[in-house]
Write a structure and sequence with these properties.
InterPro entries: CHCR_PEP5_VPS11, Clathrin_H-chain/VPS_repeat, PEP5_VPS11_N, VPS11, VPS11_C, WD40/YVTN_repeat-like_dom_sf, WD40_repeat_dom_sf, Znf_RING. The chain is α+β, with helices and mostly antiparallel strands. Among the domains are: 354-529 and 539-611, no CATH class; 662-736, no CATH class; 781-835, no CATH class. It has 32 helices and 31 strands. Helix 3 (343-360) packs antiparallel against helix 4 (363-371), helix 18 (573-589) packs parallel to helix 20 and helix 22 (643-652) runs antiparallel to helix 23.
């Protein structure tokens, strides 16, 4: 390489490429192994290595003064001599010297610039030799010094072109034409343009005074960097500028080294500029720099003498360490942010920066850095530094930011507001809490507490703004004593919040503004009755919640509760009792009889209301008795049907007329009321004698007491004499006489009936019975032998009896009636187990002895099995109160062909019932039935009177 002159350099895809004037191409690997192959016979003019492909494009000459040749090499494909294969070779259409070459990484576009200002644009795959002619763009009239392709979208490409005195861009996406746009009238020299990679990339050119940037539409930013630039290159996020310097240079301070030159010679400086952070991170001087090549994460500097130097970037931590030592914290922060540094480590840089500024006495600058640590750094670390009164401004600034970022607690809020107070910055305090910074998060309760001490107006504004209604009311009541204003404020709140606050301060309001408070409570509690939302009702106010406030003023309480008299059906038991109690208090203290009558009617109307189901009558009764309110007592006793208690109440008041009236109204329901009045009359000396006659008449009419007991009781009384009971005794004796005569008649009748029954039974037992039936009771045909006769005078053919009889011992005609009688007996036997029913009948009966006799007569006290056995043994069938007799086998004349002795055999029951026939078809001679006459029930001494 030293014997030849390097004409072109390039890098990419793991190679450094150098070309010389002997037509050779040299490939340098990462291990600095050099591979050389001949590309041209004469010289290599230009070369470019695609960054992400193994394609190398070169332009050179095989013979001097001839058209140059474009060749495309595939470095991964080699021939037998390990030389890269040329996959395309094209002779350029122009004989002028080419100055610039560029190609896209996707190998679809390539442009060549000539010294006369012409540009040849190749479209299509570079790796294929199609012999396609390039498209010649508009001649610019000046030599092309730099070119670069930029992709805006997938199918939209632009070509930046720079000359010595202008910058243009071509839209190369169009098929027909490539429109040009002049971006600037400032140009650059060879190798002094570069395209910055990235979404916000720019096309940069270097002039002696500055670096100019361009977009596809217009001119971009400008960076002032002095010096005569000879090379412009881009590496990662850095812009590498190579410029010439004359004379004795100043000491160059860099991130990594410090270099001094003492000879007054022309030197070349290399400057690495961080465009994003706008500072120089490295600079040094060298001689004869030919090219700067980025590859393998480093920068390689190639000199004209063929020497290769490597610039290795330090790691970020090493950079930051150097910056910390030089107290360049602002630079360190920008660099760390650019490198996506860890957030916690970035916070540590801010802290160190703040500590540095604090040590220098720049407290405001220190606070700015400490504010950036909020959320990561403990606030107490910063607060301790500024607790001195001379630093209170800085502390206020930090605390304000702490609240704005939502990392403050109660102590921080208290400290901030105390700072405002010490600074007498009430306007700033008001601005902080009311006007600005709507999103500031701080402990409102603590802020209100601090503001109350210095500025109650600000405390009220803060409480109202943040809906601290309870604190707002507390300030109005305790600090300003504006009770009416507080009540008006509560009325504007939602119902549930109004209820909560009025319950909290109800005592204060009722003591200072009672009328306004009661009026407001009426409106508030009405909402509870009118709302239809069940869930919302739990958060509303009820009258019960405020009764305790008005207990000392019964008139006010009654007036308060009467406001809700339209909703009595929704009142609770306690509320209703309280209302009645205080109505009674008002009634007791009222002297105007008309007003007393209104209150009486009001109370009775409430008790009589059919909508009220929760009224505790017993509680109201206690209240009424305590206040001697007679109408309520009478109503409750009558409503609960406690008539005996009502009689005792009348008698306790010596209201004998009221007692008698009560007996007249409810004596038919509870007859013992007359007995209660009678018992009182015989012992009470004040009882009016003229009422005794009515009492005795009712007792006699309803048979409430025996005559003996009544007369004995009257004889013990010292109030009544014989004249008072003469009418009663006369009526009593007359009635007894009639009863005796009637009983005597009944005794005679029952004796006669008994004698007749005994005669009939004796006849059946001892005398022969003549069966005169001529027709069968089953089929109603002429009776023929063999036949079956029963003591009930029913006769049957033997085959009819066997067909329709359910058993050998029962008469088919009498069986249904006998079963009915047995069912009645069983039912009566079951009824006797209901002792409570028997005792109830015994209590209600006017003649207890008759009821017990009836039960004995029906055998309701006997064992049911014993009654059935007795009935089954009985031979009486015709009576409806006995069982069916057993059939008797009669003696009949038998024809000669039959046996003289007949017996009745059991036959099976058939489905046909002869007794289901219509009675009109029956020809049975009922005159022959000795039991045809119906029994006279009136002759039965054991028959039921009912």
């Amino acid at each position: 390489m030293l014997s030849s002159k390097i004409t072109s350099t390039s890098s990419g895809h793991g190679h450094l490429v150098t070309c010389d004037d002997d037509g050779l191409v040299h490939l340098i690997t990462r291990t600095f192994q050099v591979t050389t192959f001949r590309a041209y016979q004469s010289t290599v003019l230009l070369s470019t290595q695609l960054q992400y492909s193994s394609i190398l494009v070169t332009i050179g000459e095989d013979e001097p003064n001839t058209n140059t040749i474009l060749k495309v090499w595939d470095l991964e494909r080699r021939d037998r001599q390990s030389t890269p294969i040329c996959i395309r070779s094209t002779k350029l259409p122009k004989s002028e010297k080419p100055t610039t070459l560029c190609a896209t990484d996707n190998r679809l576009l390539m442009a060549i610039g000539f010294i006369d200002g012409c540009i040849a644009l190749f479209k299509g795959d570079l790796s294929r030799d199609r012999n396609s002619k390039p498209k010649m763009l508009k001649e610019l009239g000046q030599g092309i010094t730099g070119m670069a392709f930029k992709c805006i979208s997938k199918d939209q490409w632009y070509l930046f072109v720079s000359t010595v005195s202008s910058v243009q861009q071509f839209n190369v996406t169009s098929k027909d034409s490539c429109p040009m746009t002049v971006l600037d009238a400032v140009g650059c020299d060879f190798k002094c343009s570069v395209l910055v990679n990235g979404p916000d990339s720019h096309f940069m050119i270097a002039k002696e005074d500055a670096i100019y940037c361009y977009t596809v539409d217009s001119r971009g930013p400008c960076y002032v960097v002095g010096g005569q630039k000879i090379i412009l290159q881009w590496f990662r996020n850095y812009l590498i500028i190579v410029s010439k310097e004359r004379g004795k240079p100043l000491s160059a301070i860099t991130v990594s080294t410090t270099t001094k030159h003492s000879d007054e010679i022309e030197s070349i400086s290399i400057t690495v500029l961080d465009i994003q952070n706008k500072f120089i991170i490295y600079t040094t001087t060298m001689q004869d720099i030919l090219s700067v090549l980025p590859e393998w994460g480093s920068l390689y500097i190639l000199t004209t003498k063929g020497s290769l130097s490597q610039l290795i970037e330090k790691d970020l931590q090493s950079k930051l360490t150097v910056l910390f030592k030089k107290n360049l914290y602002d630079v360190a922060v920008r660099m760390a942010k650019c490198q996506q540094y860890d957030s916690q480590a970035l916070i540590d840089i801010f802290r160190q920066y703040g500590d540095h500024l604090y040590t220098k006495g720049d407290h405001s600058g220190a606070v700015e850095q400490y504010i950036k640590t909020i959320g990561k750094l403990e606030p107490s670390y910063v607060i301790k530094k500024f607790l001195d009164s001379q630093y209170i401004d800085s502390l206020t600034t930090y605390l304000h930011a702490l609240h704005k970022l939502g990392n403050a607690n109660k102590d921080h809020t208290t400290l901030l507001f105390n700072c405002y107070s010490k600074l007498n910055s009430l306007d700033k305090l008001q601005e902080f809490i009311v006007i600005k910074d709507e999103n500031i998060d701080f402990d409102v309760d603590v802020a209100i507490k601090v503001c109350r001490q210095s500025s109650p107006e600000n405390a009220l504004a803060l409480a109202e703004k943040h809906n601290r209604h309870s604190l707002y009311i507390k300030i109005l009541l305790e600090d300003r004593h504006e009770y009416t204003s507080a009540l008006e404020y509560i009325e504007k709140l939602p119902v549930d919040q109004s209820v909560q606050i009025i319950k909290q301060y109800s005592n204060v309001f009722i003591e200072n503004v009672p009328k306004e408070t009661v009026s407001f409570l009426k409106k508030l509690c009405s909402t509870w009755y009118t709302t239809a939302n069940v869930d919302l009702s739990g958060n509303l106010a009820q009258p019960e919640d405020f009764i305790y406030l008005l207990l000392d003023d019964s008139e006010c309480l009654v007036d308060f509760l009467e406001h809700f008299d339209n909703f009595l059906d929704k009142w609770s038991t306690s509320l209703l009792n309280t209302y009645i109690e205080h109505c009674l208090i008002v009634w007791k203290n009222e002297n105007n009889q008309e007003n007393r009558n209104k209150i009486e009617n009001k109370i009775i109307n409430i008790l009589q209301s059919t909508d009220i189901k929760m009224c505790d009558h017993y509680q109201v009764l206690i209240l009424a008795m305590s206040f001697e309110f007679k109408p309520a007592i009478v109503y409750i006793f009558e409503h609960n049907k406690q008539y005996s208690k009502l009689i005792r109440y009348y008698l306790s008041l010596n209201d004998y007329i009221g007692a008698i009236e009560c007996c007249r109204r409810y004596g038919h329901v509870e007859p013992k009321l007359w007995v209660l009045v009678f018992n009182t009359a015989i012992v009470d000396d004040m009882f009016p004698p003229f009422m005794l006659e009515e009492i005795l008449n009712e007792i006699e009419k309803k048979s409430l007491l025996s005559a003996h007991f009544t007369i004995t009781s009257l004889a013990k009384s010292k109030t009544f004499n014989i004249g008072h009971v003469r009418a009663y005794l006369t009526s009593l004796f007359s009635a007894e006489k009639k009863i005796l005569e009637k009983d005597k008649e009944m005794v005679d009748k029952y004796q006669n009936d008994t004698e007749n029954l005994k005669h009939t039974i004796e006849k059946l037992k001892n005398c022969a019975v003549v069966f005169q039936g001529l027709r069968c009771s089953a089929c109603n045909n002429q009776l023929e032998l063999p036949s079956v006769h029963f003591m009930c005078q029913h006769s049957y053919h033997q085959h009819c009896f066997q067909a329709f009889s359910e058993s050998d011992d029962d008469c088919p005609a009498c069986t249904p009636n006998n079963k009915q009688i047995m069912d009645i007996i069983r039912t009566q036997g079951q009824i006797k187990d209901y002792n409570s029913e028997f005792h109830n009948q015994l209590e209600r009966a006017t003649d207890c002895f008759s009821l017990i006799s009836e039960y004995f007569g029906r055998c309701l006290f006997d064992d049911l099995s014993t009654v059935e056995n007795q009935l089954s043994k009985s031979k009486l069938v015709s009576s409806p109160i006995v069982l069916t007799p057993k059939p008797v086998i009669p003696v009949v004349q038998t024809p000669p062909r039959l046996s003289p002795i007949l017996s009745v055999h059991a036959i099976q029951q058939q489905n046909t019932n002869p007794f289901d026939e219509d009675e009109d078809n029956m020809e049975y001679d009922d005159n022959k039935n000795p039991f045809k006459d119906e029994y006279d029930e009136s002759k039965n001494p054991f028959a039921d009177d009912t």
